[in-house]
């Protein structure tokens, strides 16, 4: 009888249809969520597996058939399971705090991302991380004070001391210092902390990673009045109140800033003169700008001393951040029919020279049935005049360190001190200064740093 049932079982196994393996069927290997820009070759390289193994495991015949958002089984990663997602490291976190929050061994994150040193993980670094349900993650909810032991802290947390040590990956009571945070399950009711200050409830730096030629927005929410200052690289940050206990600082990353790391420093003074300081490096990525065709211009406009002097003048005119924010929402184009002749950030050469400069604004050709230059947002006129390189120019202060400039005008129709609203005619397109023909050169500067003005047309800051 036993032999009869055994033979029946073998027959059923043979006759059962063979199914393709899907991510949902997989239990032994982790599943990666495909991101925009991913290719199978890049994914295989990132995880250190062969392309053929990756294709065979997922029954893929055409390597170009993958789509962002789809799931992909990653073979060969023994001991790692679950869904893998790609996330940028936020400001205030590092490899240690990420592993605590996700309750994942640092070795797993190191292995997934092929990290050779924990020092490689900066704010803005893109990491592949295991995804867990909210109730399985931890949050920093208690702080070890100078007069407190780990045993006392475990009593306050209502946790077994051994479990508290295990949860926070501590080898002993000596492994945590006063002022360091203790992570607890998110279901606890304690107040959540952060690496900055008890007065700060949240800190967001956008975008991450930073990018050459782009706007940086720093938003800080507090639970009490606070005085904030800081720096991003060599630029001093100025914070402005934005209602609901929120403070905002805007900064620009130069289009020729060195890719790599830039220092972010945050300082604060709280009630009672209590002070804090936080430092962390943030990753800066290249802007990947192109090159303009070689330009032939008046040689007198290429004098290096004249160029440097004019750039210093424009920087000085646009460095003072007035406390009144005069715009709301996105900026408008400064002409009626915006046809772009040269993009921001393009590298340039003049009179058969080398590519040693970059385009600090956007050039618009004459495509409308008029030559009107329009204010893109409300602001106050702080400069009008003739410049050697930029020709007849106007500069508008929009508040909070945001300035726009309009160059090469045939005629300026506003004066210093005028307040302008969106759409007001401020000048006429011309060909003064260093030009190859009539056009409008439009710049947007944040605290003196030129950034891509089209960002402000396509987005609403802050």
What is the name of the CATH class of the largest domain? Mainly Beta
Given the structure, what is the number of helices? 9
Task: Summarize the amount of helix as a percent range.
Answer: 10-25%
Predict the CATH topology of the largest domain.
Glucose Permease (Domain IIA)
Biggest pleated-sheet summary: 10 strands, antiparallel
Give the count of structural domains: 4
Which CATH architecture of the largest domain would you pick?
Answer: Distorted Sandwich
Output the CATH homologous superfamily of the largest domain. Glucose Permease (Domain IIA)
Counted beta strands: 27
Rg from alpha-carbon coordinates: 29 Å
pLDDT < 50 stretches: 1-26
Strand content: 25-35%
Mean pLDDT: 87
Shape category: globular
Distance between the termini: 78 Å
Structural class: alpha+beta
How would you describe this structure to a colleague?
This protein is α+β, with helices and mostly antiparallel strands. It is built from 9 helices and 27 strands.
List the helices and strands and how they pair.
Elements: H1 2-15, E1 31-33, H2 40-47, H3 51-57, E2 71-73, E3 83-88, H4 95-102, H5 106-113, E4 126-131, E5 138-143, H6 150-157, H7 161-167, E6 181-185, E7 200-206, E8 210-211, E9 215-222, E10 227-232, E11 235-237, E12 240-241, E13 246-252, E14 260-269, E15 275-285, H8 304-317, E16 340-342, E17 347-348, E18 357-358, E19 362-364, E20 372-374, E21 379-387, E22 391-399, E23 402-412, E24 419-420, E25 425-429, E26 440-446, E27 449-451, H9 454-458
Parallel strand pairs: 1-3, 8-15
Antiparallel strand pairs: 1-2, 3-4, 5-6, 7-9, 9-13, 10-11, 10-14, 12-13, 14-15, 16-19, 17-18, 19-26, 20-25, 21-22, 21-24, 22-23, 23-25, 23-26, 26-27
């Amino acid at each position: 009888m036993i032999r009869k049932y055994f033979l029946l079982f073998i027959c059923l196994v043979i006759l059962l249809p063979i199914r393709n393996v899907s991510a949902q069927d997989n239990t032994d290997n982790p599943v990666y969520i495909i991101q925009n820009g991913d290719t199978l070759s890049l994914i295989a390289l990132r995880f250190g597996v062969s392309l053929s193994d990756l294709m065979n495991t997922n029954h893929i015949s055409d390597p170009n058939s993958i789509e962002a958002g789809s799931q992909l089984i990653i073979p060969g990663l023994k001991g790692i399971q679950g869904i893998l997602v790609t996330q940028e490291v936020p400001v205030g976190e590092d490899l240690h705090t990420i592993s605590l929050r996700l309750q994942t061994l640092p070795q797993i994150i190191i292995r997934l991302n092929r990290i050779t040193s924990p020092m490689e993980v900066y704010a803005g670094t893109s990491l592949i991380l295991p995804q867990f349900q909210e109730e399985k993650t931890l949050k920093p909810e208690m702080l070890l004070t100078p007069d407190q032991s780990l045993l006392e802290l475990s009593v306050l947390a209502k946790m077994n001391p051994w479990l508290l040590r295990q949860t926070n990956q501590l080898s002993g009571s000596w492994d945590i210092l006063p002022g360091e945070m203790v992570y607890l399950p998110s279901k606890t009711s304690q107040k959540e902390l952060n690496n900055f200050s008890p007065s700060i409830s949240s800190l967001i730096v956008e975008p991450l990673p930073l990018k050459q030629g782009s706007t940086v927005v720093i938003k800080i929410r507090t639970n009490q009045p606070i005085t904030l200052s800081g720096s991003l690289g060599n630029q001093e940050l100025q914070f402005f109140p934005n209602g609901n206990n929120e403070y905002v600082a805007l900064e620009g990353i130069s289009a020729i800033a060195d890719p790599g790391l830039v220092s972010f420093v945050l300082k604060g003074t709280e009630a009672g003169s209590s002070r804090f300081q936080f430092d962390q490096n943030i990753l800066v990525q290249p802007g990947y700008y192109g090159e303009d065709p070689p330009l032939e211009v008046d040689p007198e406009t290429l004098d290096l001393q004249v160029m440097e002097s004019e750039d210093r003048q424009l920087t000085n005119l646009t460095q003072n951040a007035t406390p009144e924010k005069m715009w709301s929402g996105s900026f408008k184009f400064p002409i009626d029919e915006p046809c772009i002749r040269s993009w921001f950030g393009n590298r340039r050469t003049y009179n058969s020279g080398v590519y040693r400069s970059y385009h600090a604004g956007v050039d618009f050709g004459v495509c409308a049935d008029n030559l009107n230059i329009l204010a893109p947002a409300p602001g106050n006129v702080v400069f009008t005049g003739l410049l050697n390189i930029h020709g007849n120019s106007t500069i508008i202060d929009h508040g909070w360190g945001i300035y726009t400039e309009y160059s090469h005008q045939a005629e300026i129709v506003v004066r210093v001190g005028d307040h302008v609203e969106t759409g007001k005619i401020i000048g006429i397109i011309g060909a003064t200064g260093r030009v190859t023909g009539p056009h409008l050169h439009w710049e947007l500067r944040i605290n003196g740093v030129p950034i891509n003005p089209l960002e402000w047309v396509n987005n609403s800051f802050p």
